[in-house]
Design brief:
By secondary structure, this protein is an all-alpha fold. The protein is built from 14 helices and no strands.
């Protein structure tokens, strides 16, 4: 009995320490990112007036803040494993080509459906919402893959997600991840957005809803295939299309509604899947 009690006390202390580490990690990721954006990109743009391509490269560097914080404080945040072991673990889960393609298609389809709906509402051609972008196709691809997908995912999905998923239900963990991830972008809403005034309200709401929806998609696929490549691919598929979009605030309004429909669909499919697996276990048990 005493041994069980000691184990519970030790487990509680370890859980408390881990929660403290997680909170510090989130706060530091926010602060480092905001300081990098304002200090590096702000200085380069407003004082030195460097060309847009240089600012874009610097903004990609800033997107690596969650990984920079994680690796810089790795001995504190992940004291029980090495960096090599960490990456072997987060990329160690199984990968299914079919589910990876489905995950990508779900993400891309949400944006395409949104464009189609907006085009019907505004009476415009579908292709009028697209352009070749500021940079050549290959440059856009490289900029997209080397920003959030590779820069953020080690921290948000590699480090933060497993802890939240252990502590909370699928739904609550996904919401918390989405809110943390969304508000990390706060500084960009004001310095790298085309919207001002009243339009900022639906824009901010859309960011929170959509990023939360993306967390539901990521968690759904990574629940079985616990491999960070799913988070990277989903993140990339979402970001890449934005290199070629020409949209107004109504796109973000409709996109929010699309993701608000995706979330219950994912939860419903997950419930049906677990119910099917439970019945299978009972049948063969």
């Amino acid at each position: 009995m005493l041994a069980i009690l000691r184990l519970m006390i030790v487990s509680g202390m370890m859980e408390g320490k881990m929660e403290t580490k997680i909170k510090r990690y989130v706060v530091l990721s926010y602060l480092v990112f905001w300081l990098m954006v304002l200090g590096i990109c702000g200085t380069a743009s407003m004082i030195f007036h460097w060309p847009p391509v240089v600012i874009r490269i610097l903004s990609n560097v800033c997107a690596w803040a969650p990984t920079i914080v994680l690796l810089a404080g790795f001995k504190y945040f992940c004291s029980e494993e090495t960096i090599k072991d960490f990456y072997k673990r987060v990329f160690g889960g199984s990968i299914s080509a079919l589910t990876l393609v489905i995950a990508a298609l779900v993400t891309v389809s949400a944006t395409l459906i949104t464009i189609f709906v907006v085009s019907q509402i505004q009476g415009r051609e579908f292709d009028s919402y697209w352009s070749l972008g500021v940079y050549p196709f290959l440059a856009s691809f490289l900029f997209s893959i080397t920003t959030g997908p590779t820069g953020e995912e080690s921290g948000w999905r590699g480090y933060l997600r497993p802890y939240l998923n252990r502590k909370y239900s699928f739904f609550k963990a996904s919401v918390i991840q989405g809110v943390i991830w969304a508000f990390w972008h706060t500084v960009l809403w004001f310095v790298d957005s085309d919207f001002m005034g009243i339009q900022m309200i639906p824009y901010v709401i859309s960011n929170v809803v959509v990023m939360t929806g993306l967390c539901f998609i990521m968690n759904f696929f990574m629940e079985k295939h616990d491999n960070l490549i799913y988070g990277i691919v989903i993140h990339f598929c979402f970001n890449f299309l934005y290199c070629f979009l020409k949209v107004d605030i109504w796109f973000y309004v409709v996109l929010s509604l699309v993701y608000l429909m995706i979330i219950p669909v994912i939860c419903g499919i997950r419930t049906l899947k677990w119910e099917k697996e439970r019945r299978s276990v009972e049948k063969h048990g």
